[in-house]
Amino acid sequence: MNSPKSCVIVGAGLTGATAACELARQGFRVRVYERADVIGGHVRTEWLRGIPYEPHGAHIFHTDDTAVWNLVSKYTDFVPYQHRVTIRVRSHQLSWPLQRSELSRLEEWPQVERELSSLPPEPDTTNFATYCRSLMGQTLYDLCVRNYTMKQWGRAPEELSASVAVNRVELRDDDYRGLFRDRHQGWPERGYTDLVENLLDSAEIHLGSRSPATTWPRSRGPASPSWSRRHSTTSSAVNWARWNGAGSGSSASSFPASHSPRRRWW
């Protein structure tokens, strides 16, 4: 059946792949353009001597949305995984987020206790630093948050928005030591690249695409030779779709009859 609708998605990461999967399900012909020579974006998985790793840092999949969990589980197998974090303050190993029940181990506990008893009723959202200090007091902030924040972000915490601290910095009193509280948590057994590839199953994928969008052909017909691995699109940082209405001329018959979406890598 010919499809009257087509779209272009920039970026073959998890967002772009999910958009491609959903648009294909709705009957669109989908082209995905990726700046890199591989798919996966920031969640891309590589393997070294049989061990998976993520070049851009580890990502733990977690969601409270059962529909989202069912969607990703349809495209790859997940193994159960609950992320737990600890920090070391001198000789003390503490849970992160901090638990009040563990703080009495600290030599600074008397000062910490006084500060906790005089916290404001609501966090101060002036900036990152004021938010954290109003949540846990100056002493805990200096011991556990300030220096790491400067190292991670490369700037003074006072220069960061308080929104950066929300959901990153907590002070707990419930002895729950998992980092995330979502009902569904796990790790793709074969890595995120497997998930992304399966989501892209019905899309035409162009890799190594680096040209600005202004150089794209205006034609809505079949891909021309200039739409190759050496020529294409903008940065994959922004994922978007360009929608063509009925009668645009872009249809299933516009593509080569031998088109095999999953393996059409340009």
What do you see in this structure?
It is built from seven helices and twelve strands. The protein is 24% helix and 17% strand. The model is unreliable at 219-266 (pLDDT under 50). The chain has two domains: 6-80 and 186-263, NAD(P)-binding Rossmann-like Domain (Rossmann fold), CATH 3.40.50; 103-172, no CATH class. It has helices at residues 14-25, 66-75, 109-117, 128-136, 138-144, 146-153, 192-199; strands spanning 6-10, 29-33, 46-48, 51-53, 61-63, 78-80, 85-89, 92-96, 98-99, 171-172, 184-188, 204-206. The protein has 266 residues and is of the alpha/beta class. The strands form five sheets. A three-stranded parallel beta sheet has the order 1-2-12, with helices on one face. A three-stranded antiparallel beta sheet has the order 5-11-6.
Short summary of the structure?
With 266 residues, the chain is α/β, with parallel strands linked by helices.
Strand content: 15-25%
Walk across the major sheet and give the strand order: 1-2-12
**Distance between the terminal alpha carbons, to the nearest Å?**
24 Å
Discrete helix count: 7
How many strands appear in the DSSP assignment?
12
CATH architecture of the largest domain: 3-Layer(aba) Sandwich
| Apparent shape | elongated
Total of domains = 2
The first-level CATH class of the largest domain is given as: Alpha Beta
Helix content: 10-25%
| Rg calc | 24 Å
Largest sheet: 3 strands, parallel
CATH topology of the largest domain: Rossmann fold
In the CATH hierarchy, what is the superfamily of the largest domain? NAD(P)-binding Rossmann-like Domain
